[in-house]
Amino acid sequence: MTISLTPEQSTPLQPQGWLRYLSFSTDHKVIGLQYLVCGFIFYLIGGALAGAIRTELLTPISDFLPRETYNEVLTLHGTVMIFLWIVPVVNGAFGNYLIPFYVGARDMAFPRLNAVAFWLIPPAGLLLISSYFIASAPQSGWTAYPPLSITTPATGQIIWILSVLLLGGSSIFGGINFIATILKLRRPGLKLMQLPMYCWAMLGTSILVVLSTPVLAGTLVLLSFDIIAHTGFFNPSLGGNAVVYQHLFWFYSHPAVYIMVLPAFGLVSEILPIHCRKPLFGYTTMVYSIMGIVFLGLIVWAHHMFTSGTPPWMRLFFTIATSFIAVPTGIKFFNWLATMWGGRIALNSAMLFSCGFIINFVFGGITGVALAQVPFDIHVHDTYFVVAHFHYIVYGGTVFVIFASIYHWYPKVTGRLLNEDLGRLHFLLTFVGFNLCFAPQHWLGLNGMPRRVAEYDPQFELINQLSSVGALLMAISTLPFLLNVVLSAFNGAPAGDNPWDALTPEWLTSSPPPVENWKGEAPLVTEPYGYGTPAGELPLAATSGPELWKLGNSDQRS
Amino acid sequence: MRIPAAILTLITGMALVLLGLWIGQNINLLPVDASANAPVYDELFKVLFSIGTILFVGIVGLIVYSLVKFRRKPGESGDGEAVEGNLPLEILWTAIPAVVVLFVGIYSYDIYDRMGGMAPLNDHSMHAMGGEMEESRTWGGISPVSLESDAAAAPLPIDVTAMQFAFIFHYPDAEITSGELHVPMGQPVALHMKANDVIHAFWVPEFRLKQDVIPGQPTLLSFTATRPGRYPIVCAELCGPYHGGMRSTVIVDEPETFEAWVNQNSPIANAAPQTPVQS
Ligand code: HEM
Ligand SMILES: [Cu+2]
Ligand SMILES: [Cu+2]
User: Fold this and answer.
1) What's the average pLDDT block by block, 10 residues per block, for chain A (558 residues)?
2) ipTM for the whole complex
3) Which chain B residues touch A237 with a CB distance below 8 Å?
């Protein structure tokens, strides 16, 4: 294939200044920020929906929202958070911003496809939200199990399907682009095993996206036929099979959980070495564990279906396959701990959120392995225990990493540092609020509270109120963050080009970077984690990209 | 006097394991157990809780220790030591989780087997139905019946119909239809579950059992209640606006009380065959 780094993107045909963020820009950095800001807006919407859920659950009776509306709210909440916040941000935003830097390219492999992928998201998101105002929003949960999804109001469900199809399309375009960029656009001389870990994470994630998202798309098309054309693929009253839908759905949606978390693993692998001033521990085993997770992630889907009448052998197989995911995942965690061990840890906001991530994810991973055991799962499946499990993973894991990444790369994007005090306050509120909100939900699930209910046994009232207080704290915690991001853009301390003395290629250029990423040649970074003093030598021997290396102001590092 | 680091590590590790075991054994997060397989479940829960506590406290401990010990002091500059990896160590922490996971897997398989989960479908509990279910395919639920060595205690068949938004229980032998489930203590019960509209799930937290009720695919769930009392039946699968209200009660009675209830409610005047006919 021919790859031309076409000159058209540097011509003034594209809007300049802030307007380019609203344009069909093909600059990967602009697209990355578009993903990030767009995703964050949907995060706020999804958060407001979560607030409605937690308000309803303050009392054991259904008194805050009409029952149908409650189901609409919880469906929209799940869909918005997964498809419009986590997946686009952790893949699209950081992937687009960082991957070209990491491979030493001036843009993604297919810049226009990249812009198309982003611009599918806002309309898809608006479409989804608009369903609430047009007719009624979908009511069957983000899983949309038939026959419920066939019998609830059709307009909302069809809009949901269209929206998820668009978002899936966007995700596939992105995945293809990442695979092509990582494999084909590497700067001459840069080997695969020299890439920063985030590239490997995105390669693995994109393989999952490309293999599994089309299955979801096909399934949803069939579901829409069942709804509009009254076919009977999944409709038992027409001879269809409702459980087949679950298999197809989870064939996508279990890999989807790794699509949401593998990039976060990658981002943490970039952040930790820099702030611990040590090389990433165990690069090679990290790469193999990513690929191991990708492989195993494709063959564990039926652990979501242990009570769906699956035969015993199938339950056994999926228990074992699921449990074994803990092994490659564990390797990564021990490697991170070893990276921190003996370092010179700068305990700043990026680092705090990264450590918060490790703690929360370990918790979620442990409950995950428990859930993988059929006899255990049969009791707590579809209860608040599962809700707690995946929020520990998705919020405590991925969202914490998103915040860590924002603290880490904000100086890159703006040339200014975020305020550390506000950052620490943000971390404290988020960490306490999050654990207060979700830890008690484990107990609720074990003791008999199912998920997706607007009313519950009065004995659970107190614990639910505790959980709602946690949710309130989480809502409050976004205020110092937003304040920080806005104020620091104008008044933040100038960061210099490389405030963290980092060695990965995105820091070996100016902050913010020029349109084509580097003024001259892209640097050849063969040791992205070359930190650490080999006893007696000068620190930070600039082994990579020396011609672009500018020492940052080390006194601004906290 | 300095205690060597290796010994300190060993002692910390042992303290950690003891702490984990103690927490797992002594902190009870579960509701009362009321079925034959609930204590088996609780045993598994305790083991998982112990292992989980050890891992979690250990890892959090390591992080907090690192953050305190290796934190950059004010005015300090420079890097840590350039350690890029350590193969034996990496092999060790691949092997340990692998062994733990393998152990957990085998152990939970054993638990599952003791609960009767591995019993082949259409086992004797099915034949007890006089083979009538033979052609309509029943999809496996968990069927702890097979663990009853007492062959005389044949399971009591009950038909369950789930619909938006209620469970209906029908006792085919006594011809009773009820909105609440009455079961005798100590006798196996086999629920034959059907859904009319959408998927529901039959869950009794005190029994630690759950089974989806799927339209078009009858499912089987059997259990033996062991503790008299009233326990909630909860629908656990989103089934529509009133899903949260789709609850009922299971009443576990002493055998005599159950018999009395059957006699009182059965339209079949004198006969009260609460023990089904053997096949
Ligand atoms: C890697 C990040 C992970 C994410 C993002 C994640 C996410 C999720 C989500 C969203 C669900 C609920 C699905 C639903 O019912 O709607 C779930 C359930 C489950 N997760 Fe995870 N999980 C992760 C890690 C793990 C791990 C490490 C394990 C086990 C080794 C695990 C095992 C399970 C199991 C068995 C269930 C099914 C529980 C049930 O529905 O009864 N998960 N997970
Ligand atoms: Cu899964
Ligand atoms: Cu229900």
Assistant:
1) 49 66 87 95 96 95 92 95 96 95 93 95 95 90 93 93 96 96 93 94 96 95 94 91 94 94 96 92 93 94 88 84 91 92 90 96 95 92 95 96 96 93 96 96 95 94 96 96 94 90 91 88 88 60 40 38
2) 0.89
3) 215-216
Please report the domains of chain B, with CATH numbers, ordered by start residue.
5-70+89-114 (no CATH), 124-265 (2.60.40.420)
Structural domain that includes position A291: 30-557
Ligand 1 pocket member A456 (CB < 6 A): no
Provide the shortest C-alpha distance from residue A86 to chain B (in Å).
Answer: 24
* Counted domains in chain A: 1
A412 in a domain, yes or no?
Answer: yes
Cβ of A457 and B77 within 8 Å?
no
Q: Tokens 């059957």 identify what position? A: B262
- Nearest residue by C-alpha to atom 32 in ligand 1: A368
A296 within ligand 1 shell (Cβ under 6 A): no
Chain B hits for A450, Cβ within 8 Å? 201, 203, 234-236, 244
Residue A508 included in any domain: yes
Residue A319 lies in a domain: yes
User: Amino acid identity of A539?
Assistant: P
Q: Is residue A24 part of a domain?
A: no
CATH number where A501 lies:
1.20.210.10
Give the orientation angle of helix A461-491 with respect to helix A28-56, to 10 degrees.
150
- Sign of the dihedral defined by the CA atoms of residues A126, A132, A138, A142, in that order: positive
* Whether the Cβ atoms of residue A454 and residue A70 lie closer than 8 Å to each other: yes
Protein residue with least CA distance to atom 1, ligand 1? A258
pTM for this model (two decimals): 0.90
B/e letters for B17-56, b = 16+ CB within 10 Å, e = fewer, are eeebbebbeeeeebbebbbbbbebbbebbbbbbbbbbbbb
